[in-house]
Amino acid sequence: MSTQSPPKTVAQALEAVESWRSEEDARRLKELGDVAQEIQSLEAAMENLRQQLEALQTFRTDLEAKGTELVAQADKRTYQGIFEVLQVQAAAVEQRETEGLAAAKAKQEKLPDLLAEAGLGDVLAEYEQFKSSVEPTLQHLPDSYKAAMLEVHHGQEAKLRKAIAELGGTPVLEADTISADLVYAIDAPEGTPELLVVVVPVADSVQSGWVEREGGLQTVLAARVAEAIYRASADVGFMGAQALSGGHLGLLAVELELVGADASLADTLRQALAEVANAPELKASKVDLTVREIDMDHLLPPEDEEVGDE
Amino acid sequence: MSDALNALTPIGLNEVSRRLGVDPFETVRLLVATKQDLSGPMLFPAELVETLRDQGGVDASWWEDASEAEPKARVQAAIQQLLDRGFVGDTTTRMDNVWRGLPFDDQALLQQALTTLAEDQIVRCIGTPIGLHVAIDPAQKKAAEGIAKGTSSTDGLDALYED
Question: Angle at Cα B130 formed by Cα B125 and Cα B132, nearest 5°?
Fold first, then answer.
């Protein structure tokens, strides 16, 4: 309740109204200022939130992109890891081949003595005498004499071959077992197998330079892969099979186009490649081979899908 | 070791391949196709080479003069060999018979030349259990004769000669 006494004149009444109006307007202006300040503060806060939101959206986009990149990086690291291991294994297989060839040579050099110890020294001497002295004269003999002599000769030859195969065969090395992996991938981008790629833990020169190479464990390991490919292809009647070899990071890579082959070829190849681990040469050389199917992206990265150095 | 003992000693895959004049992988294909027992170590009696040669259709080198030749001349001569030997249509020959005995570069050249001619359907490449075979396509015999005489060529061959 107002304590002011009511105006007694019109002038006082007008003055009172003016005073009230001034006070109300001053209050209004003050509140308007407060609201403006509050709006400014909220706008600043909103701008801040907007900037935070933008930053978070950018971060989210980066993280999403990183997911794809991570997959690509993981593929690349897997690929690098696989090939680094295979290169180390290939060096060990090469060393094992050298040891195997030396052992085979030593065994061959002992062969005449071993044959003699087996009681076949005389048989060998007769065989050599026949080849050097008798065989050149056979043409002058009557057929019946010739047939009789050849029958004896072939008998001696069979005895010697059997003994040589037993005494001079692939030597079993006295060495620690080494591990190696044979990796392969079957590419089927549309669901149907299109390409087989096998990487063999041997140097690519084993195939590219075969003419000058003596042979040995590396050659045989590569050959067992070819055997698996051609055996599996023959089993499903894929006559157009053509294994192509080349180098990939210094290792031997073998490719086989599967387009046009029976759908069962992929599984038949898997079984045949698994059999490579049981090759007798690997057992003799003390190589424990693991045959492993891997993703094509881990064998040939997408940007490098060709077998190089063909 | 004596010669006689050497002759009785089994030989390895590379030696079999050298005697045949065939790449080791192709030798393996022949071993599989002729149903050789591969359950033991890959060591073979020397006599097997002749068996594989016969059953695999492996010819002795076609080239009396294997010395260096210009790429175009070599390709012309190879196509002429196929024509002269009658490898047209269903009468085919092993593809590697075409280049056996030649220097390595010429072997690669002829392999590429036959591949490009197959793409142009002038020669046919046929997969067989004993290896890839080749013959002139009978419908393209005239074109092949033109290539052999040097009066015609293909874009693929021209690109090959430029490399």
Answer: 15
pLDDT at B66 over 80: no
Rounded to two decimals, the ipTM of the complex is 0.89
- Chain B residues at the A interface, defined by Cβ less than 8 Å, are 1-5, 7-10, 12-15, 17-18, 23-25, 28-29, 31-33, 38-43, 45, 127-129, 132
Residue at A99: amino acid letter:
E
| pTM, to two decimals | 0.82
Q: At what angle do helices B71-84 and B141-149 cross, to 10 degrees?
A: 140
For A274-299, the pLDDT digits (tens) are 999 999 999 999 999 999 999 998 88
Residue-wise pLDDT tens digits, A237-274: 998 899 999 999 999 999 999 998 888 999 999 999 99
From A108's Cα to the closest Cα of chain B, the distance in A is: 8
A2 pLDDT higher than 80: no
Residues 172-231 of A with CB under 8 A from B: 207, 210-211, 213-216, 219-220, 222-224, 226-227, 230-231
CB contact under 8 A, A210 and B128: no
Sheet holding B93-94, edge to edge: B93-94, B131-136, B123-128
Pairwise CA distance, residues B130 & B110, whole Å: 20
Q: B57 to chain A, minimum CA–CA distance in Å? A: 16
The two structure tokens encoding residue A200: 């063999």
What CATH class is the domain B71-162?
Answer: mainly alpha
CA distance A208 to chain B (A): 9
Cα B13 to Cα A283: distance, rounded to the nearest angstrom: 18
Q: Which residues pair with B126 in a beta bridge?
A: B133
* pLDDT bracket for residue A182 (50, 70, 90): very high
Which helix (H) or strand (E) covers residue A281, if one does?
helix A280-284
- Outline which parts of chain B fall under CATH 1.10.10: 71-162
Determine the average pLDDT of the residues in B19-35.
95
Residue A130 DSSP label: I
Which value, in Å, is the radius of gyration of the alpha carbons in chain A? 44
Q: Look at residues A151, A177, A32, A157 and name the one whose alpha carbon lies nearest to residue A99.
A: A177
CB contact under 8 Å between A223 and B2, yes or no, is no
| Residue A169 DSSP symbol | S
